[in-house]
Amino acid sequence: MTQFNTLNAINTGLIGHLHPLLVHLPIGIFAFAFIISLFGAERRATLSASLSVALLMGAVTSLFACIAGYLLSQSGEYDAALVLKHQWTGIATCVLGFLAYFIVQFRRLLVWITAAVMCVTGHFGGTLTHGEDYFLMGATASTTITTQSTDSITPVVDGAVIADTTAKKTVTQREISLYEDQVVVILQNKCYSCHSKVKKKGGLRLDSEAFIKMGGKNGAVLTAGDPDNSKLYTHLILPLGDEDHMPPKGKKQLTAGEIATIHRWVKMGNPFEKNTVSSVAPSVATTNSPVNAKEQALSNTISNVPAIQKIGLGETATVESIKTYSPASPGVLEAVKKLNVVITPIQSGSNGLALNFVNIRNFDGKMLDEIAGLKEQLVELKLTNQGVTDKDLQKLTTFKSLAHLQLEKSKITDEGLHHLKSLTSLQQLNLYGTEITDIGLESLASCKQLTNLYLWKTNVTEAGISKLKKALPKLKIEAGGFEFKKPDSIKK
User: Are 164 and 282 a contacting pair, CB within 8 Å?
Assistant: First the structure.
């Protein structure tokens, strides 16, 4: 049985994946035969032998393409109905090619029919590869933009409408959704070609809320509120050459802004939640570029989604003011990028930054010296699974804006936590999989702003956690449901 499964995997994986390569051979050969068929009778007669060879080669290569295509379809990653259409039109192309080769008296007509059926087959194949409406995508996008409404969005200040001498304005209620307004567009343009109804690579579909939550063959891809444990985000920032990087090398990649939007969306507690906000809509258009005004207003509103408070029916949402930081030096940013560190803005218009060392293969403490130039802007620092030591943590003492710090699976000990006392803005700390004990927790009692602490698979005890909670009553500690280790003093 094991040998059978291995052979089946080779057939569907290796041979099946040759289909995209093989299919181009009959396309080019039959196209060549079609061009010859357009010549006059005298010219066709002189090229009769070449046409015969072309038809035979086209028919044979199309047969191989059909076999490889059938094996590829067994992966179950494609829409069955569309695969069936592509399969039978492909077989028809192959049969017509052989008929055109053997039936000389009707060869010209058969070549034309073969070319026509081949075009239909190619259309179905293109849809399977690139998604539905691939050929009309540009026209559809253009039409969508030109038919948008011209409403603009202006915030209400202290319950009063901001005065405007150019138009009369009225207060309205509006629902906004980062998922529907921005994320869906990104997924549609960059992900649907491989993860939708037509093609379900890895058993994953991203074309609806339900399918995103369902995940694929390799498990969940979205963990709400935790981008670093969500493949939907982490696979985007892997090195381009990594086999898990998405979209795959050769496909159209997401821009830095689009990746930041995905990060902000996943980080929301409920990514699919809609929020109601107050807005001011002008009764008379006041701009010569209504589409641009709409797009700018929508962008400004959506960028603040994470700051919108949860509200009940009929209530008005309040938007927190954005905390701003001084702009980072372009030279420092460029130097940090060269380290292969992922830099992401935390919020539009704030200048705050998040740095992720996920792409670093050989961590060196000197890298933290390089990012020192961003200490005023650094809000989130992710050093997950890196060789960070206690000595390295000492370099973070001047990062006064640092609010989120992830040190899971690093080499830090209790001694290193002593250096975190000076991080007056620290709100969230992840110590999963480290050698931290109760002694280290005592150092964290000085971090008065700390609200979330992750301690899975550490050496802390229940007594140590209880003591820390007394010092920081508002602190939420995630212990992962593990069994607390008994202190050495009470071990038998």
Answer: yes
**Cα separation, 308 vs 301, whole angstroms:** 10
Indicate if 179 and 263 belong to the same structural domain. Answer: yes
The domain tally of the chain equals 3
Angle at 239 (CA atoms; ends 235, 240), nearest 5 degrees: 90
| 339 and 480 both lie in a single domain | yes
- Asked if 336 and 212 sit in the same domain, the reply is no
For 278, which DSSP code?
E
Q: Read off the pLDDT band of 133 (50, 70, 90).
A: low
Per DSSP, helices labelled H in 235-289 are 256-267
Domain hosting 261: range is 169-307
Q: Are 347 and 306 in contact (CB under 8 A)?
A: yes
User: 300 and 347 share a domain?
Assistant: no
Q: Is residue 143 part of a domain?
A: no
How many Cα atoms occupy the beta-carbon half-sphere of 111 within 13 Å? Answer: 25
- How many helices (H) and strands (E) the chain has is answered by 20, 9
Instruction: Tell me the per-residue pLDDT of 27-80, one tens digit each, with 9 for 90 and over.
Output: 899 999 999 989 988 888 888 899 899 899 988 998 988 888 888 777 656 667
Per-residue b or e along 218-234, where b marks 16 or more CB atoms closer than 10 Å to that residue's CB:
eeebbebeebbebbbbb
Q: How far is CA 487 from the centre of its chain?
A: 44
Task: Give yes or no for residue 396 having a pLDDT over 70.
Answer: yes
Whole-prediction pTM: 0.42
**Angstrom distance (rounded) from CA 272 to CA 315:** 19
Give the C-alpha separation, 420 to 397, whole Å: 7
Pair 360, 381: CB distance under 8 Å: no
| In a shared domain, residues 258 and 339 | no
Angle, CA of 106, 53 and 25, to the nearest 5°? 105
Question: 303: how many CB neighbours lie within 10 A of its CB?
Answer: 20
Residue 298 and residue 204 share a domain:
yes
pLDDT category, 108, cuts 50, 70, 90? Answer: very high
Indicate the residue type of 177: S
pLDDT in tens, 338-381: 888 888 888 777 889 999 998 888 898 889 998 989 989 999 99
Whether 336 and 355 have beta carbons less than 8 Å apart is answered as yes
d(CA 458, CA 463): 14
Q: Across the chain, which distance is largest between two alpha carbons, in Å?
A: 103
**Side chain identity at residue 340, one-letter code:** N
